[in-house]
Design goal:
Order of helices and strands: EEEEEHEHEHHEEEEHHEE
Shape: globular
CATH class: Alpha Beta
CATH topology: Spore Coat Polysaccharide Biosynthesis Protein SpsA, Chain A
Distance between the termini: 29 Å
Helix content: 10-25%
Number of helices: 6
Number of strands: 13
Oligomer: single chain
């Protein structure tokens, strides 16, 4: 399977390329925002002071009254596997997928009084994909902290750029661990069908992959489904350092996929700190095996919406 790849009470409309709005909070978080093209962005909001525990989780272990970062990676407007995005034929599918991210992930998190911030990357340049700024970015509203557009060579290149963008805009791993209760890394071509607070086996105080691979793929140590990663801020640094290792989003291994990330990550944080969003497993490939949580645009099997 080949895969491609979330501030101040005002916002700014920026009609020109790569404008930076510089500012620094008292706690040292860099509030500067870089945005390539038109749209709205705002600096990172001041993190609220909390009494007692530095992490507040409800029974479902989702944060309450916290800060959430959603990194959106990959290429927008894809029509399926082995496509490079920016296809006009995929506009309606892409907008539906983006709306589903808001409906099933962002809105449930905001209902728990969390602040959601988007760090958005598209693996095609502004000139190559004008519909991205015109149609996709506005969907995220004033939650956008950063937008990057560039011509991505392959999946490892794309995810590394997304991680580096996040590090640069927030001030690095130590500040990320302090600021963010939860971090989600998702893809543009994922259509979500089940709310985040109903994901069956997710443990949000641990690192979560989506699922194990199909049975023929072997044990979790040999293959995991790499379409989404979810973690508390405290685990960001170790995941960031894992990406690009021998079997984890390395172009020399399985076309640069993240299917082999489990062993390296487990060696750093332990098996007991890794969970899966679902115990469902594909029958053959993720693209031709339906499930009721997420569906990739262009998959052979239709999505199975949850009632």
């Amino acid at each position: 399977m080949q895969c491609y790849i979330i501030y101040c009470f005002s916002f700014f409309f920026i009609p020109f390329n790569a404008l930076r709005i510089g500012d620094t909070e008292d706690n040292g978080i860099d509030k500067s925002v870089e945005f390539s093209g038109a749209g709205s962005v705002r600096p990172l909001r001041q993190k609220k002071e909390r009494k007692g525990s530095s992490r507040r989780f409800r029974e479902d272990k989702l944060p309450n009254d916290g800060h959430i970062a959603i990194l959106v990676r990959g290429q927008a407007f894809r029509t399926g596997a082995l496509t490079t995005g920016c296809d006009d034929a995929a506009v309606s599918d892409q907008l539906r997928a983006t709306e589903s991210l808001l409906t099933h992930i962002v809105h449930p998190l905001e209902q728990k009084h969390n602040t959601v911030e988007f760090f958005v990357l598209n693996g095609n340049s502004k000139d190559a994909c004008p519909n991205f700024e015109k149609l996709v970015v506005p969907k995220f509203g004033d939650r956008v902290a950063s937008v990057t557009q560039f011509n991505s060579n392959h999946q490892p290149d794309n995810i590394r750029k997304a991680l580096d963008q996040f590090n640069e805009k927030t001030g690095g791993a130590d500040k990320i661990a302090k600021r963010y209760d939860l971090i989600l890394i998702v893809r543009h071509d994922s259509e979500w069908m089940t709310p985040v607070n109903s994901w069956p086996t997710a443990e949000f105080d641990k690192f979560n992959f989506f699922s194990r691979c199909e049975k023929i793929g072997g044990s979790k140590k040999k293959c995991i489904n790499d379409i989404v990663q979810v973690m508390p801020g405290s685990l960001w640094k170790v995941f960031d350092s894992t990406v690009g290792t021998k079997h984890c989003f390395n172009i020399a291994f399985r076309h640069g996929s993240g299917h082999g990330c489990y062993p390296e990550l487990a060696s750093r944080i332990g098996d007991d700190q890794i969970a899966f969003i679902t115990d469902w497993r594909p029958e053959h490939r993720i693209r031709d095996s339906p499930n009721n949580i997420t569906h990739l645009i262009g998959a052979d099997a239709p999505p199975q919406f949850k009632n």
